[in-house]
């Protein structure tokens, strides 16, 4: 898939690009079925909403809703359908153009997961950048976010602040956990340009790992599922002995 000059420029300027209906529907159905099955069986490893302590999450594992799964981890190793999507040729081609690299590597140590937002017990995630705890040669990594169903504000779609992947943070703009301080004057200017990334089933969001993003909790009666992977080019490698090098990377 040849990206237009406008699409490449949009990604470089705004830090994101949406491609509609990018996945074969038969593969999407298989991925969706696997997700539902593995959630029902509670196949580890996974992360619970109660473990992150974000707003709207259950207060503890022992409280009501405390067993709610937030993420199924290590997606690449879970099923052939997840691996097929991670190595999708069209996705690879898009990433080659955005990363300006013939070789594209899938990160297994970060993301590589199924994000879920369950009714009643899903959390609200504050504004943050994924690179805050990642350790690579430089910050150019790209996340792919595959929507398995409709994603809108009501069920916790991703929110982004366009262009913030190119921004330098002033003193006091993030707290000790590196979440954006929404009371900072410069942050308020960014927040005024917030975009809800509304997706339909099969749509894919490509976004720079340095882009500030957030998400509300799910206020609907239906669960929302997204498959999230991260990639980098040949000139960007995880730093040795860091969490980013915990798992082997996959050349796709």
Report on the structure:
With 252 residues, the protein is α+β, with helices and mostly antiparallel strands. It has a single domain (5-251), classed as Jelly Rolls (Sandwich). The protein is built from six helices and 13 strands. It has helices at residues 5-14, 25-41, 49-52, 80-86, 89-99, 185-191, and strands at 16-19, 46-48, 69-72, 104-107, 113-117, 125-128, 141-147, 158-160, 195-196, 204-208, 213-215, 224-233, 250-251. The strands form two sheets. Strands 1, 2, 3, 4, 5, 7, 10, 12 and 13 form a nine-stranded antiparallel β-sheet that branches. The chain is globular. The two termini are 16 Å apart.
Average pLDDT, all residues: 97
CATH superfamily: q2cbj1_9rhob like domain
- Indicate the overall shape: globular
CATH class: Mainly Beta
Total strand count, please? 13
Main sheet: strands, sense, barrel: 9 strands, antiparallel
- What is the N-to-C succession of helices and strands? HEHEHEHHEEEEEHEEEEE
What is the first-to-last residue Cα distance? Answer: 16 Å
Low-confidence stretches: none
Q: How many structural domains are formed by the residues?
A: 1
**Which second-level CATH architecture applies?**
Sandwich
Give the percentage of residues in beta strands.
15-25%
List keywords for this structure.
252 residues, alpha+beta, Jelly Rolls, nine-stranded antiparallel sheet, globular
Please describe the topology of this protein.
Blueprint (H helix, E strand, L loop, with lengths): L4 H10 L1 E4 L5 H17 L4 E3 H4 L16 E4 L7 H7 L2 H11 L4 E4 L5 E5 L7 E4 L12 E7 L10 E3 L24 H7 L3 E2 L7 E5 L4 E3 L8 E10 L16 E2 L1
Antiparallel strand pairs: 1-10, 2-3, 3-5, 4-12, 4-13, 5-12, 6-11, 7-10, 7-12, 8-9, 8-11
Helix pairs in contact: 2-4
């Amino acid at each position: 898939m040849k990206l237009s000059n406008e699409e490449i420029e949009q990604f470089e300027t705004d830090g994101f690009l949406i491609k509609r209906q990018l996945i074969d529907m038969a593969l999407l159905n298989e991925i969706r079925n696997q997700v539902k099955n593995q959630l029902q069986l509670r196949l580890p490893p996974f992360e619970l909403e109660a473990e992150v302590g974000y707003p709207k999450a259950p207060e503890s594992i022992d409280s009501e809703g405390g067993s709610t799964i937030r993420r199924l981890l290590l997606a690449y190793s879970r099923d052939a359908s997840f691996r097929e999507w991670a190595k999708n040729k069209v996705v690879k081609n898009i990433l080659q153009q955005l990363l300006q690299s013939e070789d594209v590597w899938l990160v297994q140590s970060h993301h590589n997961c199924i994000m879920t937002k369950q009714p009643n017990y899903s959390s609200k995630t504050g504004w943050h950048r994924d690179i805050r705890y990642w350790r690579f040669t430089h910050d150019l990594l790209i996340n792919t976010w595959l929507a398995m169903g409709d994603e809108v504000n009501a069920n916790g779609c991703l929110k982004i602040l366009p262009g913030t992947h190119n921004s330098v943070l002033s003193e006091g703009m993030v707290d000790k956990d590196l979440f954006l301080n929404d009371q900072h004057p410069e942050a308020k200017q960014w927040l005024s340009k917030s975009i809800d990334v509304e997706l339909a089933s099969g749509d894919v969001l490509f976004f720079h790992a340095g882009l500030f993003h957030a998400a509300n909790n799910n206020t609907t009666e239906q669960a929302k599922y997204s498959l999230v992977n991260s990639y980098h080019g040949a000139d960007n490698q995880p730093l040795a002995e860091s969490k980013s090098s915990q798992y082997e990377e996959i050349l796709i």
